[in-house]
Amino acid sequence: MKRIAITLLLCLLVSGCGMKDIDKRFYVVTTGVDLSDNPAKPYRISLRLAITSAKAESGSSRTEIQTIEAASIAEGVRHLKAYVDKELEFGHCRVFVLGKSLLESSSPDAMSWFARRRDIQMISYFAVGEPDALSVLKITPESERYPGNALFLSFGNEGTESPYTVTSYLFDNSRRLLEKGIDPVLPIIRTQEKTYVIDRVMLLDKKKPRLTLTPGETQLYKMISSHSGKSELVLPLEDGKRVVMTVSDIKAKVHIKRDSVPVITVKIRMGGTLEESPPNLLEKDWHGLERRMADRYSEQMEQLLIKIRDAGVDPLGFGLKYLSTYFGKEKDYKWWQSVYPEAKFNVVTDVRVRGPGVIR
Amino acid sequence: MNRYFYYHVFYIGMMNIMLFVPHILLKHRFDGAVSGLLLGIVVGSILAIGTIYCFRFFPQQGYPEILKMFVPAWVAAPMLYSTCLLWLAGGVLATYTFSQTMGIFFNPEMNHYHFLLLIIVASIFSGSRSTRTVQFSVEILFWLCVPFLLFILFKALFNPYLSWDAIRIVAGYFGRTPSLSVMASSTFFFTGYLSLTLFNRLNPANFRLKHVWSIPILGAMFGFVSFFIPIGFHGTVGVEQYVYVWSVTADSMYLKYGFIQRVLFLFLIMYTFLSMMFMMNVFHACMEYVKASVPGHKPQPEQLPVPKTNWIICGVFGVLCFLFSLWANEGRSHWATEIWLIIRFLFEIVNLIQMIIFAVLIKRRSSSAPSKSGQPAATSGQ
Description:
heterodimer, A: 360 residues, alpha/beta, GMP Synthetase, Chain A, domain 3, 2 domains, nine-stranded mixed beta sheet, four-stranded mixed beta sheet, 13 strands, B: 382 residues, mainly alpha, Amino acid/polyamine transporter I, 15 helices
């Protein structure tokens, strides 16, 4: 009995320190980092803090934003603690927004703060804010049920499953920043009155942004990068009408042949049902329609791949694929870097239309 | 009785993460880690299976009893002390890393000595029980771990973000010669068999370990999983930057439909169990070695109630853990762990040679004076 009592007493002693109750904490829900005008303090850090409440109705989310300029992100966050009355807690901060100008001018090494912090989840989302991160943070969508939720739901197919929204996790990005043969990708969040629009993607090399894709290209990119269903395939007809197919499943395989220049073959198989089409078109020429859709898609995809290649980035990891196919070492990677700008693409698409939908 | 042996193989195979084995292997991923892992399967299996066969000649006897049969007590005592010291060092290093990991990922604001105190108190209590109790609690803790282990393994292997390309690239570097520290790390996955040195006391006289073939398979699985999965998540280059590489890997998985999003917490719970198992066994084995070094000591694997000496000895071990953490920091504990792994590897080789010599000696003794029962080891029973 005495022993048990002593052990219990020891436990009491242990749990007493270090803990802080929920009502003494400020939960950061979104963090934004921008470039400031002040060269001595180049970073402008903005935190969106949740004002916790028991209500969880649409429109009841309330937040406040704190902003500071600092020489580094860590110093800024430390200094911000003096601006608020509760302890800052990053454990629930799932979205980090980087300003566009920041990415263009600053080296990615400064970003190591995110990976180094132990309470920041490696599965948090990263995005680019346009025009800057602060304006993205200032948006408060009407439908938000609890603070910061709207952005959490936008990514990772958690709420909306948009074919235009590319998700980028922290661990994936920090791997892509260092890895040979694959480059980082960040979705762009634009502001529009009281909502976010996330339908573009920014492709970066190891140092700087190189290319921004249009919404149409972003969808194409997402289709082969993350094999996402729920996207669409469009075929404009001669008479101005359009055939639209919803893609329910898609598979993409990459083969790389070693030649004087590498030949990258992308084989895509997809299936789906028609969502919009002139009546009876499919029954007239089922295979012909499938082939025409496939050819058009291949052509679009090839143009996109060439555009990405000419920008000098490799977000789809062709270099990595090449190295892994041939068990490549340093020398092979050097060769790859020298010939990638001339690489040839060959996209083969196989479209299977399951049916015309509910009507003929 | 077979299963009790394999529990030890399992938890030591998984404990490697708390002893920086993946970190050491990943540091050498381009110069010899892959070949080290392959060679480690061969060497580790030879060490394990060889020792298991030698122990067949000594039913119901632990290493201290065997040692005392062949060498005088004043030689046996220092040998037992050094073995004890070796294992205790492993336990001390594991507690330190455990308290650091918990401090970093569970509650960064809490003093990490508190975590240390918690695990040491628990280890002192559980380690000082009788051998039979320890054996049974290993079983319970093992089955508590299994669901977590399978879940995390499943989550990792079927994760769309696991890059098999990166894994293939690193696997391509198999032609390099491994260094000693890589070999020492890659054979650690097989070290679970050493539990026989103590728990053989509990095995019945006619005990024959079955499914020995599974030891190379299990060890290889632990090795490949703890080495390649972090590469798949963090890339061939990025993987090097993380100190607690497996905690970060677990954090890179995402639970969409769970109560919590971070797999990290499940991982930490599993490692709390595993560390607990490891500490309990280390404390218990070391305590039994110290007790056996006294001349005329008779092992009592089912002793109840627990004598005071058990508490005192385990208490001293606990104090040593604290003293180490006063001295240690991250760099020092890395350095000490690397050295410990190498010493452990050399010790295992010496141990196998020693056991072969003892086995040959006992065979000769029994053939020169055949016993009535015909069983070679029955003559040497206590």
